[in-house]
Amino acid sequence: MDISYLGLALGLLLLLYPILIFAHLKLKLSRQLFISVGRMILQLSLVGIWLEFLFNQQRWWLTLIWMLIMIGNAIFTVKGRLKYQGKILLPVISIALFTSSIIIMPWILIMIVKPQPLYSPMYVIPLYGMILGNGMNSCALALERFESGLADNWQAYFTRISLGANLWEAALPPFRKAMHAALLPQLLSVASIGLVSLPGMMTGQILGGASPLVAIKYQMMIMFAIFSGVTITDYVAIRLYLKKRFDKFYLPKGGR
Amino acid sequence: MAKEPSSAPDYMKLLQIDIKRLYFADKDLARDIKLEVSTQERILIVGATGTGKSSLLNTLNLMNQSYEGEILFEGKFLQDYHPHELRTRISMVMQETYLGDGTVQEALDEPLNYAALKNADHSDRKQRLGELLESFKLSLDYLAKRVNQLSGGEKQRIGLIRSLLLRPEILLLDEISSALDQKTSGIISDCIFASYPGTVIAISHDPLWQERWDRTWSLEAGKLIDNSGVK
Q: Measured between CB atoms, which of A155, A156, A161 is closest to B87?
């Protein structure tokens, strides 16, 4: 069932409650609320119009261009979130996200979902958005944790290299910790799904009229794909980062 | 320059140091350091803080690249060795030895997991460990202790034993006794001199240490003065 524009406006009226509560508490969030909601409405409207156009066109190159814009955005988002900056970040994040995209997307499109045509944007774009969004968040977390794992214990790192460890061996403990920190939340969310909240994709499909049995199959597939994609992204990102962060004597470039 | 070679026929210069410029960030520490080190020499580096003693020591096992010039180890450029291999042959013990948070045994075995030693022959390791513990006046019971139960002096001794188990040709010591009292510091230097036959290059401010060296390098105002044969 479609929502009418009047209905949407009534939905917007729900925000009166937070505005009243903010005013009562003299909480300075109203301005941010206007900005955030305004941005959300603008962005979603533009995306809605754009996707409507994209879905009607059904052109492979338009789909591809949109995917590239998505990944470009994801790359810069990850970079922006990291404290440790440097020229090395852009190629590292790009290669990591591209690698997982290239492994995961053809797999689910060709072997599982099989849309007609294969590049059909109404399947490709939402699926890719979920894979990429999760990869992006996890990649930022993994790189941040790896760098802070090094920074917290340079003494341990230097001890390992002075005891005959090569770069890989010396960096493995913070590597493991970073992977653990980045992947554990994903696994916990996999385990809790369905009991508390229905994931967005399932909700959307069910509201859109799909059978819950179809929706759960999609949901399971997307969870497999997301977890696999996230693990690949994090692994590739840290491995490349490691190579660029240290010189051939295993010493950190540009200081600690 | 260096002490006359001993009677050993296969005598060779272990280290040939020719550093044109030693620096830290954009600050010059020292210039024109030209030295040769023979096997079994015991060298003490002295000088005020900030003169570059640690920087110099760290160049010798590839832990510091902030210099211009060249250093040869057994006739081959330092940079041409695998860093992990070189660092077990020229082994550094630092002011505060990091032993992790496990047991002493685990701390001592850590290098066995690493590239440099993975394929080495460890058949006599247990025996050597026993000998080293004995000469450093530690009982075998220490192996089961947790690292965080050790005193500063005990940690330093375990750190030294761990380095000596690598069978290094050169032992680099960076202020290893500065956090210890004089008595402990004395015991440690006795142990090193008694149990390790190889080359030692050390930084120390401890007066107890100053008497037993073959050579002293003193770093002052960007220059290194080599006092060979000073006892």
A: A161
